[in-house]
Design brief:
138 residues, 6 helices
Length: 138
């Protein structure tokens, strides 16, 4: 009875839709990729030792925080099925930038044939683009 009530209430909120699993998966990845860095100096180090060295000084740390906070905001939007278009577009822009700045020089593969390549960002971008498509007609 309790599970049915949750599903029934979710329909009213339109959180659980046909693309919920994709939204949940991307939101989980964004959160897991962002939150630990907030507590282990990962964001600070990314801003200080990577972004500042790439020419973003003195704004590297602020930019790193903006990127990670945008990931958290996007994850919340995806989970609640609100502002999905904007969350996807901002995240795609960040992922594409990450491909060119970080991952492309490493090649295609994340593991196996290489390390830290573009394939994972490519997949995330494809999923986010699929969320921008209109729902199928009945």
């Amino acid at each position: 009875m309790f599970v049915f009530s949750i599903v029934q209430n979710s329909r009213k909120l339109r959180i659980i839709t046909s693309n919920f699993l994709l939204r949940f998966a991307v939101a989980t990845i964004l959160l897991v990729h962002s939150i630990p860095g907030m507590f282990n100096n990962g964001i600070h180090d990314f801003g200080q030792y990577y972004l500042n060295e790439k020419g973003f000084a003195p704004y590297g740390i602020a930019l790193a925080w903006a990127i990670k906070l945008s990931h958290v905001a996007a994850a919340i939007c995806l989970l609640l099925n609100r502002f999905v278009k904007w969350a996807a577009l901002v995240t795609i822009a960040i992922l594409v930038t990450g491909i060119f700045m970080v991952h492309l020089p490493e090649g295609w593969f994340v593991v196996g044939g290489g390390r830290n390549g573009v394939e994972f960002n490519f997949l995330l971008i494809a999923v986010l683009l699929s969320l921008l498509l209109p729902p199928p007609k009945k």
